[in-house]
């Protein structure tokens, strides 16, 4: 079987699994779990085989024209280079892990069949984006992911938080997709094709007439999909969905699509220095702002959500300095440890019966209840904080090293200012990342107070997936020396300067946070423990849904009962209350967009009801009144008819006389 055929099967198998799962979900529920896991697992195996055959060498290209358009052709095309091959492996690995994990996590959920089918469809759409060689076909996968995210984030539709989060995610991403679509059409018009290889050829020959405009339009769509400032506000609220969905969206699909898109079309963005500088500033604000916000969150999943935003900022920063190898390297590394973080968080939430770190900090022996989650999450947090030799260290240092080369003038064609912006913000974010990673670990696993509830052992499927993802979180960075061909031949070995600075700042952030926690622990000992919810043993998804409903403060407001042991409050000081609500960006958007739109809708509704409907009702009322008057005149009395006839005759005679006299 040819590589092209194998590649075509990779996105096709999860799609067929989704279709079969939807059709058989009610009639044959016993087939739902095999249909969820096996097609995705097979697609993962085929993606590995495609990557081995591609080998980081010459890209695999194949195309067939879908239908004559009369102008710019649209083709069903494949373009698989080293980046595409590796990203597809990541998507397959994370999607398979999520499907296996979900068989235990949602084992008693009556909506599991539709959930599993949507996850498979989501996976298929992302794989289509990864392998597609035509921008319009890529757009199909791009939009399907948006639709799937709407349904998956709103899985717990009984809770208002989930309903609001799903709508917000859909609207904010669609807001970015509008300029994105315009940018795609503008790019195709300039290049004369939607085919990615043709577009890149046009860029190389200077064939783009409006590179800055096109790059900025495309960047707007990427900002929405990859949750970059200022369109990042949907991602923390999307935590109202099931934890496995969070792992899938944050690690390997939705948010990774935007970064991957820029990496694939980086020459288009590199053709405009202004676009690179805008991208660098956007990445810097995203990194630093999300790091501060993560340090103030009480909900464990919102901490990880803001962490995802910050790590995506690193990837965007690498692209802003023209290094797509470093960006994709961090995308792959982050995908493994972030999926592990979310899936381990799901185990913690089930064991604690709450999403609240403040509540967890008042529980003792929580880590003893869930040893698998404890050890694997520790590995993932070390990778997140970029502590050597974990994978996050190598990938993050690749980003910082690329920024240093641009800032010091060793890389040509990229504004030096972009390098300095990314380098400084990246180093500051390294400090913040280690700080909130240490805070999460301390509050979740070093709590003091009442004994944590015992829900028994987690399903084997859930714990096995945690250890599976712990392997690349620990060892992927060490294997980079074996994969230079997949990264355009770029040497991803960490540079000495950024390694010392980045690791030093990470250690400082962790140690300062630990010291602050030790200082606040004494204060916490004098605060009453209060009641901590202890859910009965049952389905993890049910516990999470109840945690969402009962801990609404974790989904948008500052916790009503502050935890005096929280080192984040000491570290941030007066900035804490602003960081906890995402620096009030939602309030700003509500004032600038939501309220004006609602006011406009109210005005339209008023005009429709009071003006338009009045005319419509009047158009029916006038004939009805005339008919009633005529009906009243039909009395059947001859004398009345004769009198009316005579009166009319007299009136006509007088009128004729007046007209004649006037003449």
UniProtKB/TrEMBL annotation:
Domain NADH:quinone oxidoreductase/Mrp antiporter transmembrane: 132-404
Location (main, coarse): membrane
Transmembrane segments: 6-24, 36-56, 76-100, 112-131, 137-157, 169-189, 201-224, 245-263, 269-296, 303-321, 327-352, 373-394, 417-443, 464-484, 496-517, 641-660
Keyword Membrane: yes
Pfam families, alphabetized: Proton_antipo_M (PF00361), Proton_antipo_N (PF00662)
Topology class, membrane: Multi-pass membrane protein
Domain spans labelled NADH-Ubiquinone oxidoreductase (complex I) chain 5 N-terminal: 68-115
EC code(s) of this entry: 1.6.5.-
Subcellular location: Endomembrane system; Membrane
Keywords: Membrane, Oxidoreductase, Transmembrane, Transmembrane helix
GO BP annotation list: ATP synthesis coupled electron transport; electron transport coupled proton transport
Protein name (database record): NADH-quinone oxidoreductase subunit L
The organism of origin for this protein: Streptomyces phyllanthi
Lineage of the organism: Bacteria, Bacillati, Actinomycetota, Actinomycetes, Kitasatosporales
């Amino acid at each position: 079987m040819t590589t092209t055929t194998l590649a075509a099967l990779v996105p096709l198998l999860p799609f067929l699994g989704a279709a079969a799962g939807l059709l058989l979900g009610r009639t044959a529920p016993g087939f739902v779990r095999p249909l969820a896991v096996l097609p995705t697992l097979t697609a993962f195996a085929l993606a590995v085989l495609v990557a081995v055959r591609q080998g980081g060498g010459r890209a695999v290209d194949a195309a067939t024209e879908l239908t004559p358009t009369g102008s710019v052709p649209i083709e069903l095309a494949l373009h698989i280079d080293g980046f595409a091959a590796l990203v597809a492996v990541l998507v397959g690995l994370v999607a398979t892990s999520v499907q296996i994990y979900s068989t235990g996590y949602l084992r008693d959920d009556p909506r599991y069949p539709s959930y599993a089918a949507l996850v498979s469809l989501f996976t298929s759409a992302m794989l289509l984006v990864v392998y597609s060689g035509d921008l319009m076909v890529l757009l199909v996968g791009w939009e399907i992911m948006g639709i799937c995210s709407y349904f998956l984030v709103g899985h717990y539709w009984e809770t208002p938080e989930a309903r609001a989060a799903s709508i917000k995610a859909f609207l904010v991403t669609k807001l970015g997709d509008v300029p994105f679509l315009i940018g795609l059409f503008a790019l195709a018009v300039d290049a004369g094709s939607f085919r990615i290889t043709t577009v890149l050829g046009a860029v190389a020959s200077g064939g783009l007439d409006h590179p800055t405009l096109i790059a900025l339009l495309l960047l707007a769509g990427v900002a929405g999909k990859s949750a970059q400032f200022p369109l990042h506000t949907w991602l923390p609220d999307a935590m109202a969905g099931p934890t496995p969905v969070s792992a899938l969206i944050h690690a390997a699909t939705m948010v990774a699509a935007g970064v991957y898109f820029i990496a694939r079309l980086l020459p288009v963005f590199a053709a405009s220095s202004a676009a690179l500088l805008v991208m660098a500033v956007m990445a810097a604000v995203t990194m630093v702002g999300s790091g501060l916000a993560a340090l103030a969150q009480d909900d464990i999943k919102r901490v990880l959500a803001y962490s995802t935003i910050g790590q995506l900022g690193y990837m965007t920063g690498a692209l802003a300095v023209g290094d797509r190898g470093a960006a994709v390297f961090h995308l792959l590394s982050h995908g493994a440890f972030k999926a592990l973080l979310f899936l381990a968080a799901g185990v913690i939430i089930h064991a604690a019966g709450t999403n609240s770190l403040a509540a967890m900090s008042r529980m003792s022996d929580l880590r003893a209840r869930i040893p698998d989650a404890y050890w694997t999450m520790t590995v993932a947090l070390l990778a997140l904080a970029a502590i050597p030799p974990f994978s996050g260290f190598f990938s993050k240092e690749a980003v910082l090293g690329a920024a240093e080369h641009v800032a010091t003038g060793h890389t040509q064609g990229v504004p030096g200012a972009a390098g300095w912006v990314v380098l400084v913000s990246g180093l500051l974010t390294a400090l913040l990342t280690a700080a909130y990673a240490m805070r999460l670990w301390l509050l979740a696993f070093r709590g003091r107070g009442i004994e944590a509830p015992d829900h028994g052992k987690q399903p084997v499927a859930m714990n096995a997936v945690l250890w599976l993802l712990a392997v690349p979180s620990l060892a992927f960075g060490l294997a980079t020396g074996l994969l230079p061909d997949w990264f355009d031949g770029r040497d991803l070995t960490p540079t000495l300067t950024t390694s010392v600075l980045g690791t030093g700042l990470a250690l400082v952030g962790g140690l300062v946070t630990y010291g602050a926690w030790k200082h606040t622990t004494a204060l916490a000992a004098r605060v009453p423990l209060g009641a901590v919810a202890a859910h009965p043993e049952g389905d993890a998804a049910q516990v999470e849904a109840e945690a969402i409903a009962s801990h609404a403060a974790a989904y948008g407001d500052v916790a009503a009962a502050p935890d005096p042991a929280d080192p984040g409050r000491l570290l941030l000081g007066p900035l804490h209350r602003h960081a906890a609500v995402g620096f009030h960006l939602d309030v700003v958007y509500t004032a600038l967009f939501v309220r004006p739109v609602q006011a406009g809708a109210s005005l339209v509704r008023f005009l429709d009801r009071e003006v338009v409907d009045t005319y419509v009702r009047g158009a029916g009322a006038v004939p009805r009144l005339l008919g009633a008057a005529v009906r009243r005149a039909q009395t059947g009395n001859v004398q009345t008819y004769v009198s009316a006839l005579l009166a009319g005759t007299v009136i006509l005679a007088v009128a004729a006389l007046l007209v004649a006299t006037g003449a």
